[in-house]
Amino acid sequence: VLSFIIFICYIASLATSFMMAPLLEFLLALFLFFAYASKLNEKFKGLYWPLMDFLRCVTAAVIYFAISIAAVSKYNDGASKAAGVFGFIATIVYAIDFYITFNDLVTFLKQGSSESPEGRKSEDEDSDSDSD
């Protein structure tokens, strides 16, 4: 919703060149929401969905921060200032989201790395018993 509001503000402002970033972020967020709601993430196991969400949040935070600084400093109309302020708020929201998602990624990676040596140990034991 925040990306859509920023998109509308950029359309109404003099900084229309920045409108593509919030539009893409809105569409990506809508796609991921639709994917989770329709359980596409369970059907396509080959993709690690939290990693995609993490990368989207990191890039969104960086891009929103950059275009918000440019919109606030370069343009003097009210819609550009409003889009910049909403962009700073979106930067904070996306930063919190990628921090939460990063913690999920770390627990997943720890869980995956702890399972793989055990699997190797059981394979090694099988190969040792075959050589006897």
From TrEMBL:
<dbReference type="InterPro" id="IPR008253">
    <property type="entry name" value="Marvel"/>
</dbReference>
<dbReference type="InterPro" id="IPR050578">
    <property type="entry name" value="MARVEL-CKLF_proteins"/>
</dbReference>
<feature type="transmembrane region" description="Helical">
    <location>
        <begin position="7"/>
        <end position="35"/>
    </location>
</feature>
<dbReference type="Pfam" id="PF01284">
    <property type="entry name" value="MARVEL"/>
</dbReference>
<feature type="domain" description="MARVEL">
    <location>
        <begin position="1"/>
        <end position="106"/>
    </location>
</feature>
<keyword id="KW-0472">Membrane</keyword>
<keyword id="KW-1133">Transmembrane helix</keyword>
<dbReference type="GO" id="GO:0016020">
    <property type="term" value="C:membrane"/>
</dbReference>
<feature type="transmembrane region" description="Helical">
    <location>
        <begin position="47"/>
        <end position="70"/>
    </location>
</feature>
<feature type="region of interest" description="Disordered">
    <location>
        <begin position="111"/>
        <end position="132"/>
    </location>
</feature>
<keyword id="KW-0812">Transmembrane</keyword>
<protein>
    <submittedName>
        <fullName>CKLF3 protein</fullName>
    </submittedName>
</protein>
<feature type="transmembrane region" description="Helical">
    <location>
        <begin position="82"/>
        <end position="102"/>
    </location>
</feature>
